[in-house]
Amino acid sequence: DAGVTQSPTHLIKTRGQQVTLRCSPKSGHDTVSWYQQALGQGPQFIFQYYEEEERQRGNFPDRFSGHQFPNYSSELNVNALLLGDSALYLCASSLDQAGAFFGQGTRLTVV
Amino acid sequence: AQSVTQLGSHVSVSEGALVLLRCNYSSSVPPYLFWYVQYPNQGLQLLLKYTSAATLVKGINGFEAEFKKSETSFHLTKPSAHMSDAAEYFCAVSDRNNRLAFGKGNQVVVIP
How far does chain B reach from its first CA to its final CA, in angstroms? Predict the structure, then answer.
């Protein structure tokens, strides 16, 4: 079992650009959540996908959007990048209340 | 809304000494509580979880936590610190859909 995998591991983008991050959940997990972790902070919930629909959303602007595919994998898209979007983006997959399992994250740097 | 509070961002402990990290939660419903560990430049690894079964929860790497409803606490302990325990530790509370709310974390430094 490969666990939760994320790609790419690192990314550098320019202000105003758009970015897409990808996540493959742990085998058998049907729910994918995305978190943003700024340097020195705890992760903040962005949104969660279940059955290809956005089920919950945190306090993030509409520039942050996502998608879940039939195989449960997911994408996070961020438009009109700001310097403040620089962070570690974490994907977590889960199934019932067993807890969420996290990927290694994608380090996004906006310059 | 559910939330957790972790006090003291940096915790220094001598090798072989007790590790104690404090976490207090706020939840309007019976909570699901978790401790995660994060090593540098890595994702989060689940240490242990409380899901309304036993109040004393044992996790990986010798860590355990006790759920105390009367104190709304879920403190993490390890009897004897090892150099490999140096990392950042996060307490989290979740709703029934596994939406996690994290504390600010404790950076643990182990002194030889």
Answer: 41
Compute the half-sphere exposure of residue A16: CA atoms within 13 Å on the CB side of its CA: 0
User: How do residues B26-39 score in pLDDT, each as one tens digit?
Assistant: 987 778 999 999 99
CB contact under 8 A, A41 and B105: yes
**B92 contacts B21 by C-beta, under 8 angstroms:** no
Report B:15-54 residues touching A (Cβ under 8 A). Answer: 32, 34, 36, 41-46, 49, 51
Q: Which value, in Å, is the radius of gyration of the alpha carbons in chain A?
A: 13
Q: Do B94 and A100 touch (CB under 8 A)?
A: yes
User: Cα-atom radius of gyration of chain B, to the nearest Å?
Assistant: 13
Inform me whether the C-beta atom of residue B84 falls under 8 Å from chain A C-beta atoms: no
Spatial distance between the Cα atoms of A78 and A22, rounded to a whole number of angstroms: 12
- Provide the strand spans (E) within chain A: 5-7, 10-13, 19-24, 31-37, 44-50, 53-57, 64-68, 74-78, 87-94, 101-102, 106-110
| pLDDT of the residue at B95 | 81
Q: Is residue B104 exposed (0-12), middle (13-18) or buried (19+ Cβ within 10 Å)?
A: middle
Confidence of residue A42 (pLDDT cuts 50, 70, 90): very high
pLDDT digits (tens, 9 = 90+) for B83-103: 999 999 999 999 877 889 999
Contact B97 A31 (CB under 8 A): yes
Rounded to the nearest 5 percent, the helix, strand and coil shares of chain B are: 10, 55, 40
